[in-house]
Amino acid sequence: MSKRKSRGPLVTPKALGVIAAIALALFVIGEGVRFVRSDGGRLLIARATGLGARADLIRLVAKPIRLGLASVAVPRDSVSETPVEGGAAPMRWRVGLAPNASLLQANYAITRSLENAGAVVMSAT
Fold first, then answer.
1. What is the reported pTM?
2. In CA terms, which of 10, 37, 90, 92 is 20 to 30 Å from 50?
């Protein structure tokens, strides 16, 4: 009787490497798309390249400011936003704090909220 020839492996190491590379590439592409569509990603792209609609960027920055103010219990009706024509800043925010509220805590909450959203907050320290 003749000996049976042993079969090779079902999946070769080269094929496994190709499959792993494709999976990694798809993962990186998916994470890139997810990041670019996120608020932090859009802020980063706008900061790095200058691309992005001004109104969209104002909305992206206003959202974490509102969250920061809400975290220090500032009522929504105590916050007014008015557009400024031709000013250095596109929006003017007026925030009414309670007499016993801490301005430093409100500033800290807004700063942390903006940084968590991907914005860079300038500091004088």
1. 0.65
2. 92
- Based on the fold, state whether residues 31 and 69 are members of the same structural domain: no
Cβ atoms 93, 79 nearer than 8 A: yes
Tell me, what's the pLDDT at 96? 92
Q: Distance between alpha carbon 14 and the CA centroid of its chain, in Å?
A: 38
Note the pLDDT of residue 110. 92
What pLDDT is stored for residue 34 in this prediction?
96
Strands 91-95, 79-83: pairing kind: antiparallel
What are 93's two structure tokens? 């925010």
d(CA 36, CA 34): 6
Asked whether residue 125 is domain-assigned, the answer is no
* Cβ–Cβ under 8 Å, residues 112 and 106: no
Judge if 32 and 57 occupy the same domain: no
The residues facing 79 across adjacent strands are 95
112 and 63 assigned to the same domain: yes
Average pLDDT of adjacent 10-residue blocks, the chain of 125 residues: 73 92 98 92 87 84 91 91 82 90 92 87 76
Q: Which domain holds residue 73?
A: 53-116
